[in-house]
């Protein structure tokens, strides 16, 4: 078994070297890589994160939108656990179930964040 990546959003490239996943948010990447190490993963970004990268560097704590996203992730995980009936003890999950749990959390966060930002005043 290979080691797990440090974030859920690596690698950001496919075997051909094309962008796949945004290093910041996990959505579909387009081009700009932010890794200063040319030998490592390029850490590609999506269009939204390319525009906002300077603001991301300044973030120190969760804002109201991110807290709404966190709530969405919690709800999504609860639904996922209830659908499977496995329980909440992670030690009984196999590797795939652990990853699917995290995927449910991430997708729930992303959906809730987009919903919260839809009503943002900017």
What characteristic shape results from the CA principal axes? globular
Termini separation comes to: 45 Å
N-to-C SSE string, H for helix and E for strand: HHH
Mean pLDDT, as a whole number? 81
Main sheet: strands, sense, barrel: none
Q: Quote the beta fraction.
A: under 5%
Total strands: the figure is 0
Range of helix content: 40-55%
Helix/strand-derived category reads mainly alpha
Radius of gyration: 16 Å
InterPro entries: DUF6511
Pfam families: DUF6511
Detailed description of the structure:
By secondary structure, the protein is mainly alpha-helical. The chain has 2 domains: 1-58, no CATH class; 61-118, no CATH class. It has 3 helices and no strands. α2 runs antiparallel to α3. The longest helix has 24 residues, at 95-118.
Give a quick set of tags describing it.
122 residues; mainly alpha; 2 domains; 3 helices; 45% helix; 0% strand; globular; DUF6511
Task: Tell me briefly what this model is.
The chain is mainly α. It has 2 domains: 1-58, no CATH class; 61-118, no CATH class. 45% of the residues lie in helices and 0% in strands.
